[in-house]
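**User:**
If convenient, please work through this fold.
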Amino acid sequence: MADRQTNLGFEFLGLARRQPDRPAILGDGDGWSYGQLARLVTSFALHMQRQGVGKGSTVAVQTDDLVVHLGVLFGTALLGSRWVAASGQLVEGRGVAVTHWLQSAEQPPLPAPGRIVIDASWAQPPPDFPTGAAPQFPGFADPEATWTIATTSGTTGAAKFLGISMEAMAARVAASGADLGGPDARLVCLFPILAFPYIVRALGALHGGATLVHSYNPMFWSQNGVTRVMGSPTQVWTVFGDVMLRRRLPVLHVGGGKTTRENARELLENFEEVVDAYGSREAGQIFHTAFRREADGTISATGRAVPGTRVEVVGEDGKALPAGTVGIVRVISPNMAKGYISNPEAEARAFRDGWFYPGDLGRMTEEGQLEIVGRENDQLNIGGVKLNALEIDGALMSVDGIRDAISFTIPRETGIPELVAFVSVDPAKSREACYEEAREACRARFGAQGVPRKIVHMANLPRNAGGKPDRKACALMALSERRRTG
């Protein structure tokens, strides 16, 4: 029998027995208590067991129903199997061998053999399961066995698969739960429910006895005592728009994209604190920078490495660089993954001598603040002038009224790439005025080559599920528009 102290599935069922009536999920018009959710998780695990899911199985799930997702996720933990979000890459057989394909009834059929449809009958134990009998689930014999399989962001090329053990996930979940502040916390997470950032935060809330608020309505958040909102910059702006709450919510946790001081100033109209979170699938949360509005109206920024995590900025020789010098970021984390699945080349590049190299460029300030200035593969060469795309994004977002920005290049017949920027502009601001100010901000920092030849407004900018810029998608969109208009 597995050590249940390290299994998040058994821990959740135990917590639900102690507080069955406490709200686990609160949504617009409905909700689930811990007891109700535990009964559903048990039923799901029994149905999965009848379908042959067990140790050695890899379960891929396709759903947009949070309760179905949690039922499958906790079910795999109870059965000692692996969980992964269904994707086209998996259907094509690249990276991970899936043994069971599960999907909600309302989802379009997965083009995969032997798919299993989750219907309303899964809410109850199988008809032939003895009434009153205690289910027996094996769990994991080895806490270092892989439980969740995450997909990396793909910002460095093709997405890679990362196996994360129950032990490592339990450590991340415990840290996430502690960060929420206790069982009275109420969390909103704006990432898609199958995205890895959502999984860690949702499990963190349920591990700590807190409540998941499944709603995209800021007014509902305010009325129902939400204490923390988590999302990417684009997701936050999309939900809020011109919303101004009567009472500020306690904390906004922003991940997947850089939050500038100017962005924080606007966000602090609706939140008491804005936390810019730097992290990765491979290492978990790495560094937090907290922005607050002081009594005199100034915006303060205080940063710290996540407890137990060590961050360095080094040169090509692996030696630490002095404060203020841009170099390669590397990190050691207590719950770091060990490597990639079936990708030894990528693993050798990213995991070296006990360190993880996320591919970012940054610098440490004299005060010990970590400033990410770009990615190693975000270097743009425009007519012999080397620029960093993330720094250009930052210059664009320094303009009052520009909420989000992604810079990228597209080829031209001259052979010199054209610098283009997609931006999201506050509807209350003049677009042309923002564009002109953005050009001046880029010219002042980078010179003429750093000024986008074209700036285009988009309500929602192309970012991946983790919130990171999808510059390749931006370039394809710009090239398609160029061909369409001639």
User: Anything to note?
Assistant: The mean pLDDT is 90.
